[in-house]
Task: structure prediction
Amino acid sequence: MRQNKMILPTLREVPKEAEITSHRLMLRAGIIRQLASGIYTYLPLGYRVLKKVERIVREEMERAGAQELLFSALQPAELWHETGRWDDYGPELVRLKDRHQRDFVLGPTHEEVITSLVKQEISSYKKLPVTLFQIQTKYRDERRPRFGVMRAREFVMKDAYSFHTSWDDLDVTYKTMYRAYSNIFTRLGMFFRPVEANAGAIGGEGENHEFMAMAAVGEDTVAVCSHCDYAANLEKAEAAETPAAGLQPSDEIPVMEKLHTPDTKTIDQLVAALGVEASAFLKTLVYLADGKPVVAIVRGDHEINEAKLKDLLEATTLEMANDTTIERTLGAPVGFIGPVGLKGVTIVIDKSAAAVANGITGANETDTHIRNVVVGRDFTPDRVADIRNVVEGDKCPNCTEGTLEFHRGIECGHIFKLGTKYSSKIGATYLDENQKAQDIIMGCYGIGISRCLAAVIEQNNDEGGIIWPLSVAPFHVHVIPVNVKDEAQMSIADNLYRRLQAQGIEVLIDDRDERPGVKFKDSDLIGIPLRVTVGKRAGEGIVEFKVRKTGESTEVSIEQAFEEITGLVLGQ
Result:
């Protein structure tokens, strides 16, 4: 490709709307341009990288035995009504009507569509298992699009689904996909970690892993053991429970006693007023799970994990109750709520809070708390479970030596087991060996193709710009003649350009009539891995060869440069 004719508009200034490194560099390097909030056009350089990522994903999926197909992005609302997600999915679902006033959605995901297809086309156990995948643009009306393509309203995704007659069979495919994903992200040049995860709005049961590209700007918090290989996102992470400091059980705990606590509604205020550690308090919060009030209790030094609570309650929606709802439902003032004496409401307590021997909690009266509260003696919860966020320093649940550390990650892939969540609702069944109809068991496997571009850039950049790994670089080599008016330089540059192309190597030649400094800055910015500069010593057969990643630059013969490049590119 000749740069003089290429649409490659680099920018010197950092765009004001760009908050993170990848967004700034994608705009500055002429990779994307914004069309509307959260909606981007991929310019030629960016589209080349996007296709490279797709190719790697496609190769590994096909190697894992998956078959590619392509669905419509436009989906009839009837399918979403069948699964209940028309109402459940929320405002992120892009809804529209055709000229006949029939409801449709622009697909954010394709569980309904693919399950419907399998229902039509597969009826016997003899056709199972099967894994199908597509690479397609998805649409989600994000409330707050940000970070460029990291959280956009339109994005490219690979989604795959597997169909099985048994959970054991699904286990085999799940492990195959786990290996395929590990191969994909390795080939993309990412530093990544598979972590235990939550299925989220799509749902599912059993094993569940996210593949996180580790980066400081990641929106997800990952809890990692300091000793073993345990890793989980914050929604899923657990800790080995340890007793709260200074709260060991005793044979005789005094009876409950009310405390006058004027204007002390928060844990920090109570700690200051009573001189007691935060772990002594039973912090009580009120939620609405599918519209029904639920009381959730954690220790004062812990926070509720809403994802865990939602899963425990098997709720479709979960939200904090407002002050009016709390006072109307419980008859208790906000800031002084406690579980003692509550009736007609579900009470869920975290395991560590249930272990508090003599706790302090709200008395359901203004300016009043109760101390010496014992779980089981003074109130009986309906459920005792892990519903809290882990904190740094918690003991690892997987080993005895390690503690949990927090890191940030970008979710680039997600694999999980759907079970019969969709097949049972849509009626996707198969006939077993006894000709009896059974619900098909499903697995789901997604990769954010466009998000991978941002993740690669976040991990591969310096003050000069992007540093693309060879596997996804828009071009392998950047050939730069210093002076395009010098016939000798242009002749050598053109000859090298054509010879490399003949070897199947992708080359960009900077044939612009620009100052050398401009060319070199642009070259660093767009991040092509290898560079050959044809300058004053071209007549001697000497060129400069530079590796973008290391910055190492050497003067070599033209033949040496050719051999070095072919070895690096064709040998990858």
